[in-house]
Design goal:
The complex is a heterodimer of chains A (506) and B (99).
Chain A (H helix, E strand, L loop, with lengths): L13 H19 L7 H20 L6 E4 L3 E3 L1 H22 L10 H17 L5 H19 L6 H32 L4 H9 L5 H22 L8 H7 L2 H30 L6 H26 L4 H26 L2 H30 L18 H4 L1 H15 L5 H15 L3 H27 L14 H18 L2 H11 L5
Antiparallel strand pairs in A: 1-2
Helix pairs in contact in A: 1-2, 1-4, 2-3, 3-4, 3-10, 3-13, 3-18, 3-19, 4-5, 4-10, 5-6, 5-10, 6-8, 6-9, 7-10, 8-10, 9-10, 9-12, 10-12, 10-13, 11-12, 11-17, 12-13, 12-16, 12-17, 13-15, 13-16, 13-18, 13-19, 15-17, 15-18, 16-17, 16-18
Chain B lengths: L2 H21 L3 H26 L3 H31 L13
The chains are: A mainly alpha (506), B mainly alpha (99).
């Protein structure tokens, strides 16, 4: 552990530092100079912090990979794109909670500080090339997330969500830590690079190899918990339904982006030496495990989503299913070690974030407009009846997001899935792609059911729908327009993700 | 003392903790079991540190202890928040949301 820490390295992680200092600034501001009522001031400060981070990110070129703290943290195209997406997620989350923050229970300055702390952890995770660093980053964002999940003190379901997220999360962290100890025992180091070197070394003993595989397996299980892969997904629906809607959106998008990028970095680095699909029986088994996880996650997520009446539960299971699709890209990376798999995965993750916020944004707008009596009741499919005609702009935006989630053209959801499945076919995983396409067809059933409710059912309340036409609702429109743009002109999306993932293994 | 003994003991403690999380229902006990799993990993790290003659493992344990302490603070706060409402924290009774 002889990472050289000097001030010269700090500009490399400028966006991360801005977010971290911003979190402290928000806390200090509210302490020294409290604002009564809705906390618009800290909201604007948080937005400014995220904007500054984006500016700092834009000022650097993504093309030059660099180990900011050697053996700990890498700054390259992959972490650049991931941080860009994460800062965007932060801004979208703030927008979703802007209108009706009182109804959503988010009118506390601590909410904004915790959000920034969680974002900092996720951003660090995307650049980590060290098992210990990965563990600390995972915990940094998870600890903030546990509190955020139970943030709305007015609702009992909220605290339950926090407990149901905390216990499996801490369990998963212990798994990761023990895996780390095993890898340290086998190699005497916790750097990804030393893991690869030790694996390739001809002097590697069978006992060492077994320890390394067991450690890697334990750590993969921990990631599966955090990202919500079957069979470690049981907490997802309860937590997403119980937490405040903007928090659910943040949790599903942020944890997925950070977790998938960290998995990509870990798996991508060890993929070449481990050679998952050709080499000896033990590595082969690990590759098959990821393949099996992908299939199970898609199937279970989609089948369970079919039965849901609550919109947030449906979106929760749909997010599980989308993790399964994203894993297809990871399997493509493993199978052919193809850079296309990595870039398709990044494009897919970006598009998923937009679809997710389009859907959750309108749910939040609906809750923001609700009278006190309805608070705490999860929004049902029936609550969207007739919205398509009552509010044509917002209804159309939500319908477009649903088409995109189902993977129908001309939306970005189709583009992203197409490139993902294409990369998997090129890596020789035809069977997996067949399963994934069948799953997409199956998923259309429940996404289109919401569209049916939007346009083909009469509104229940004559007085009109209580949709709050604030930032949350307009954010849905913004995301939907981007989805349409990348659906019609996919080349810019592909170029972006290809530039980001170029040369990430070296 | 051979390193196998240390690792074996750590693995045994880890398994006991994992079994506890799987089979017990009281959130406080679950919580203690998770702490056992953390400490099993710490034991392995310290033992390996001595075995390799490196300080790395021991410095890692300090980091892990800090993380575990933060986790205890958050976890107990969540438990207390739930206890205030319902005066009992059995996970089988925490069922306002159904999984």
């Amino acid at each position: 552990m002889n990472g050289v820490i000097s001030m010269n390295n700090l500009p490399g992680i400028y966006p991360d530092l801005v977010v971290l200092l911003g979190a402290f600034a928000v806390l200090a501001l509210e302490l020294l100079w409290p604002q009564k009522g809705s906390k618009t001031r800290v909201l604007y400060v948080s937005m400014a912090v995220l904007g500054l981070g984006l500016l700092g990110l834009g000022a650097r070129s993504w093309g030059m990979p660099q180990e900011v703290f050697p053996g700990f943290l890498r700054v390259d195209g992959l972490s650049g794109m991931a941080k860009f997406i994460l800062l965007g997620i932060g801004i979208l989350t703030l927008a979703a909670g802007k209108s009706g923050s009182r109804n959503l229970g988010l009118d506390h300055a601590e909410y904004y500080a915790l959000l920034l702390f969680a974002l900092f952890g996720m951003m660090q995770l995307c650049g980590s090339v060290n098992f210990l660093g990965t563990f600390v980053d995972l915990e940094t964002f998870s600890l903030a997330m546990y509190v955020l999940a139970g943030f709305n003190k007015r609702l009992a379901g909220n605290r339950e969500a926090a407990l149901k997220y905390f216990l499996p999360g801490a369990f998963a962290a212990a798994f990761f830590l023990f895996g780390l100890a095993l890898v340290f025992g086998a190699t005497g180091s916790v750097r990804y690079q030393d893991f690869v070197t030790a694996w390739q070394s001809p002097a590697l003993r069978e006992a060492q190899r077994a320890l390394m595989l067991a450690g890697l397996g334990l750590m993969l299980a921990a990631f599966a918990f955090k990202v919500g892969l079957v069979p470690f997904h049981f907490w997802v629906p309860d937590v997403y339904e119980g937490a405040s809607t903007p928090v659910s959106a943040f949790l599903s998008a942020g944890a997925k982006v950070a977790g998938m990028v960290a998995l990509l970095r870990l798996v991508g680095l060890v993929a070449d030496p481990l050679d998952f699909f050709q080499a000896g029986p033990s590595s082969y088994a690990l590759g098959r495990v990821l393949l099996l996880l992908s299939v199970l996650t898609m199937m279970v997520g989609n089948l369970a989503a079919l039965r849901q009446k609550s919109v947030k539960r449906m979106l929760a299971y749909s997010s599980v299913a989308h993790s399964g699709y994203a894993l297809v890209g990871l399997v493509a990376v493993l199978g052919g070690h193809s850079p296309d798999g990595a870039s398709a995965l990044m494009a897919y993750v970006l598009v998923y974030v937009l679809m997710n916020f389009a859907a959750f944004g309108l749910v939040a707008a609906l809750e923001a407009g609700w009278p006190q009596a309805l608070l705490g009741r999860p929004p049902m499919l029936e609550d969207f009846n007739g919205l398509g005609f009552a509010k044509p702009v917002f209804g159309a935006a939500l319908a477009l997001a649903m088409f995109s989630m189902a993977g129908l053209p001309p939306t970005a959801g189709f583009t992203a899935k197409f490139f993902l499945f294409k990369s998997a076919v090129e890596a020789g995983q035809v069977g997996l792609v067949v399963v994934a396409v069948l799953n997409s067809v199956l998923s259309a059933a429940y996404y289109l059911r919401l569209v049916v409710h939007l346009y083909m059912r009469p509104a229940a309340r004559e007085a009109g729908l209580p949709l709050f036409e604030g930032w949350g609702a307009w954010m849905t429109v913004f995301c939907a327009l981007l989805l349409l743009f990348w659906g019609l002109l996919p080349q810019s999306l592909i170029n972006l993700s290809q530039a980001a993932t170029m040369g990430i293994w070296h | 003392m051979p390193i196998e003994f240390t690792l074996g003991l750590a693995a045994a403690i880890f398994s006991v903790g994992a079994a506890g999380v799987t089979f017990r229902r009281d959130p406080l006990v679950l919580f203690m079991c998770v702490e056992m799993m953390f400490n099993a990993a710490n034991l392995a790290l310290v033992g390996l540190s001595g075995y390799f003659g490196l300080l790395d493992g021991q410095t890692m344990v300090f980091l892990v202890l800090a993380v575990a302490a933060a986790e205890v603070a958050v976890g107990l706060a969540i438990l207390i928040a739930i206890f205030r409402v319902r005066q009992d924290v059995d996970v089988d009774h925490v069922s306002e949301l159904r999984g």
